[in-house]
Amino acid sequence: MTETLIPHATPLARLIDIARTTQTREDLDREAAITAAGAHIAAAYPRTLIRALDPAWVGYPALPAAGLAPSATASLHGGWVHHTRDQGLHLLTFVAPCDCGEGYVDITLDDEQHLLRILTAIAAGGRFRHEPGWPRCDSRRPRNARTTK
Fold first, then answer.
1. Which of 8, 62, 72, 86 is deepest in the core (most CB within 10 A)?
2. Distance of CA 32 to CAs 21, 47, 146, Å?
3. Backbone angles phi, psi at 143, to 5 degrees
4. Rounded CA separation 55/117 (Å)
């Protein structure tokens, strides 16, 4: 039986192999965002989010041109939480559907007590109540926004 010799890899093939095994800046951003989100949730939300969230965070790289830092999201299966850092501060946003059925409302959380108050307010239907005077909820916007499009 003859042995088939595999020719030596070309420089291009070696470079492709290197690229497959080298982490990009985006990969590092995603991993750092997931790690930061998990650590923040564990430290700041020990009675709520750390006990309820699926640990499968999804990381997103920074988008410097848009002024966006790396971030991570975790699904609430009907809403989600979004974590990012701004000038060293953790920013956690809770996003849930509006009861008008046309979009989402998002609130940047202050702490675990703030989250508990919000959850109590939406407990009946799992949705934020559409406030009179709000524009249509066809895009995500802060809960306290009162401007029309």
1. 72
2. 18, 24, 35
3. -60, -35
4. 23
In this prediction, residue 138 has a pLDDT band, given cuts at 50, 70 and 90, of low
Per DSSP, 63 falls in state B
Count of helix runs (H) and strand runs (E) in the chain: 4, 6
**Six-digit token string for 64:** 């410097």
Contacts of 131 (CB under 8 A, 6+ apart): none
Contact 65, 76 (CB under 8 A): no
Q: What is the pLDDT of residues 40-63, one digit of tens each?
A: 999 999 999 999 886 789 999 999
Strand (E) or helix (H) holding 59: strand 58-60
CA 38-95-67 angle, 5° bins: 70
**Considering the entire predicted model, what is its pTM?**
0.73
User: Is the dihedral angle over the CA atoms 115, 116, 121, 124 positive or is it negative?
Assistant: positive
